Amino acid sequence: ILTFVLFCTKKTATESILQIVPDTMAASSSTILCNASESDPCRDDSAAFLLKLVAIASILLSGAAGVSVPLIGRNRRFLQTDGSLFVTAKAFAAGVILATGFVHMLAGGTEALKNPCLPEFPWSKFPFPGFFAMVAALITLLVDFMGTQYYERKQEREADDDQLQGIVVPLVGEGGCNDEKVFGEEDNGGIHIVGIHAHAAHHRHSHPHGHGSCDGHSKIDIGHGHGHVHGGLELGSGARHVVVSQVLELGIVSHSIIIGISLGVSQSPCTIRPLIAALSFHQFFEGFALGGCISQAQFRNKSATIMACFFALTTPIGIGIGTAVASSFNSHSVGALVTEGVLDSLSAGILVYMALVDLIAADFLSKRMSCNFRLQIVSYLMLFLGAGLMSSLAIWA
């Protein structure tokens, strides 16, 4: 009996020791990892520096090319913002931005805020990545709404100033007469127009089928497409394009700085190589979507150029900042992890909102899309293709 008791006691003690040792080793290794700089067998500072220079050049050229194509092409027939080619290319770019928000930025924020180097409280007690993304989406909605209201009121004041005195426009119907009258129509066949709303009403009266059926919409696209898209007949459309372009640039720039810094602080060529290809692809199509929105907003050439340059330079600047602090940067420190996780999550919320609301919904729920079945099919294919390709890049980067 005594021998059996001693055997059991010895066995229990041995098992306890075997359980304690791995835990102690894991805790010590985790402490060393969290308190020291990143240890990577592929680390090569000189090779990483050269690759960062290549990344700056490649990403700068890709971003500049992507944002320039719609701006230069708006004066070319095949790339005008009211053309089918532009709509389908923009759908592809919207899919890229949507996948960037969901698959890359939100996943990166989750990984950072769930890192074991962070204290258990509060980071393990609440799903902060999704919360920060939601907050960012709601704040973007508020900014979107307030900006649209501001620009619409500004347009109304300018329209009222330009049309304080009424004008009489002759109405010519089929056969030279028109028995029906609209608001403001005079007995002599003219219409007294005061303000931009009345002008739009007269335009709809002159083209009764322009917005009520797909047949009328198709005719307008052929005969009066330029006037409808660029003429400013709908008061809110110009304001929406201005706000969308500015908010989209804000969201893209914020996460471009983050991904640039992330690449810059890395000293591993094995990490940087796939990032160069992924970010170049990503920047080109993000730039295309932004350039399209800037083109639709009809900014002056100077303003459009400033916005385009600001976008093209943000990621290279981020890479430069990351490279400068790489020697003293510890990616496993609490401050770095929290900053990266919060900024990635906020960027994800902004990008997801902009992709779904201001890019995808604005085009896919439009009258033009609903009246063109072929355009619907191609646009959906391009949307899914863009999202799929950008998502698949997460395998490497």
From TrEMBL:
UniProt topology in membrane: Multi-pass membrane protein
Entry keyword Ligase: no
Entry keyword Membrane: yes
Pfam families documented for this protein: Zip (PF02535)
Keywords on record: Ion transport, Membrane, Transmembrane, Transmembrane helix, Transport
Annotated compartments: Membrane
Principal location class: membrane
Membrane-spanning ranges: 49-73, 85-106, 126-147, 304-326, 346-365, 377-396
Superkingdom in the source lineage: Eukaryota
NCBIfam families to which the protein is assigned, alphabetical: zip
Family indicated by similarity: Belongs to the ZIP transporter (TC 2.A.5) family.
Name this protein carries in UniProt: Fe(2+) transport protein 3, chloroplastic
Organism: Brassica napus (Rape)
Organism placement in taxonomy: Eukaryota, Viridiplantae, Streptophyta, Embryophyta, Tracheophyta
